[in-house]
Amino acid sequence: MAQAYTPGLTITKSIILRKDRILPLKGDVVVKVGDKVTADDNVAKTELPGDVIPINIGNKLGLPPSDVLSKMLKKEGEKIKKDETLAMNQSFFGMFKNTVKSPITGTVENISSITGQVLLREPPVPITVKAFIDGVVSKVYENEGVEIENKSAYIQGIFGIGGEITGEIKVIVNAPDAELMPEQIDNSCKDKIIVGGTIVRSQAIKKAIQVNAKGIVVGGIDDQDLKNLLGYDIGVAITGHEEIGLTIVLTEGFGPIKMATKTFEILKEFEGYKASMHGKTQIRAGVMRPEIIIPIPFKEEELKAGKKQIHGLKIGSTIRIIREPHFGEICKVTALPEELVVVESETKVRVLKAKMEDGIEVTVPRANVEAIED
User: Strands 135-141, 199-200: parallel, antiparallel or unpaired by DSSP?
Assistant: First the structure.
């Protein structure tokens, strides 16, 4: 009975991954089940309705709303070009003409005889959804999107900023506890996902943007550097929409924290491989984690394996401590005592015993750890 469930992150060099790629509103799916796709392939497309521009024709022509329809030169549903005459009122046997020109190229959406308003709609905006990962289309959601599956090395981060990118993995530090320095970043990092160690600072980030790197994977970042980079504080919200020139994924947290040895070794092993990465993070309900996905060769029969099962903590499980005094330490669980223990706050909690990488064994409340799923 000495088991406990603890939510955690997945870090593994081989997993069967399934990703849904869904349109923001219904459209057309352009691939079919069984198709092989690459990260940059379009899998679905749609059109977002253009903005609506209201014009009060009654006011502009000095007419009551009921007369507007008779003065319109364009009917509902007709297309119109910018500066083309939309409505015209003539007086004194046609000697004087008062006209209203269209401010946009678009379509006449609605003509109201009640308000005298005419609604114009701008042209629709085409939207495409890319596959994001190399793989095989395993499901098609009609008019909505697809599911893509593959076999990948897979790393979930703690926090990230920036959208979806793809690039080649390039490790430019020698150890997971090494700081990523600006002088290590050069033109060879163009279009690459740069891997650092313990921390990246603002000067190194600016250098990476300057050489057109695609992304940075590192243990931590100083929150002040992040604020200076973005120009504002990040609150409790969804990240991933920031446009700073690259995507950043933190594998451990904030401050100088050594990257987990396992994470660093996986990234080092797959150096030179193409990877897909995003910084989307949500820490409230519907938790979303930034991801680094490195597709690896597979046979299609391997994809028939079921989804990875999440197990509770057990002896030998890998965990990360997420509270002081051992914040950020990676440990192996050595014992899961059933009895409650009184901690410093004088509350009774369930604890576990774990051995840190330096061999020291510590006792930690179970609420203060997160599991690292292999």
Answer: unpaired
